[in-house]
Design goal:
single chain, alpha+beta, hpI Integrase, Chain A, 14 strands, about 15% strand
Amino acid sequence: MCPQKQTSRPSLENDSGGINRRIITWCSRRRPSRSSTSTARLPRTSPASSPSLSFSNSQTLCAPRSSALTTRSRSSPSTTRAHLYRSGSRSRAAMPWTETLRSGRYQALYRTASGERRSAGSFDHKKAAIAAATVAEENSRKVGWRDPKVAQQTWREWAAEWWPTRTVAPGTLKTDAGRRDGRLMPKWGDVRLCDITRHEVKKWAGELRDEGLSPATVQRTVHLLSASLTAAVDAEILPGNVAYRLRLPPADNTKERYLTKKEQGRLLAQFEDDSVDQALVALLLGTGLRWGEAVGLQVKRVDLQRKMLRVAEVWDNKSRELKAYPKSKRRRDVPIPPWVARRIKPLMKNSASGFVFEIDGNVIDYSNWRNRAWSNAIIGAHLDDGEVTIHTLRHTYASMLVQAGRSLEEIGKLLGHLSPLTTQRYSHLAKVASDEVLDALSDPTQKPKKAPKRMANAWQTDRLRGGSGLYRAVDNRASKPH
């Protein structure tokens, strides 16, 4: 320690928007060879040997000039914050700071926008370390910034880590695996995550379209890449998903195949009356259920007295198991038209397995049923144009409701659509010159007609009347063979 007297004073200086207060201690020592007095800095002390600094009564420590200034105390003298903080300023966790290494160098530290601690390197001088940490912190908060020390792994490496963590249906996982190996790996497998750009993804989507893939297939393929990048963001590997909400070619739904009333009648006439096959097709036409929801329908989920059924499970044909949630993970109630209820009632009474539709006590297998019953039926009904599939029956149900004047929101709930955008594909089927539109555009010179008193909205009225409006919309007038 210095044998001469010690004095202390505070020094305030601006540094990166904050104010740094340092306690500078001078000690003077007379050297034998010089008559002048030189200044020297006190040696560093470790926390163990000197846990705190003490001053004599004759020494004074100046108070801050502003009461709004507060200091951040640290347990170790070798770790110092670069800033003091003003009231109302950004959080302390966002401020750069330094830590002194054993080598005597200063390590520049900062936190990213997500609060993760990062280093900007080590420097000989503290000011240089603070400056580097400040620049690194500001860059980390810029849109599109990528940490140069992360996201260096390729998409192939990340896919191997991300793929086992996906929680999707086995059938979806198998389909996505084909897209991953056939489309994503050849394009992005050897590309580092930090090198994937929005422009390149959009360009790749155009290449897929030029190869002849349908817009729907292009969307699903790009969405798979987007899902992997979103997972990388959640893992704090990437700051953002460059494929998020990427504008892609819209799916052309105007070519969707729908069955007319006469076509529905011809199709039902190809099956034996009161058979399981005819009842199954009738249910698909009259309720719009997906295949897995229809064959997985249990007797306990059907209330013929209320003419309602509840979709609570779905049958996975690939894994041969009943799952406790539908595709959109949302349970829903669907009205049953009388002509459908009449066909499934005897099947419910004779069910041995608890399922409405069964053959020899087993759930109907999709491939077997398609080859045994469906293929012959569409040929006999003259619907073998290559566009009619089992899913066409679901589109037909939606089209009948739209043309009957039902709202897209109501139709989406009946179909189990999680997103209203999915139901928009049927909007072009709505009647443009509907009665409601014509009433709104009535002659203003005419005295308006007094509207009848209504006790409930349209949906509630249908429920009170036993769902007659919905039943009329899907009433199979062609259920009698034409």
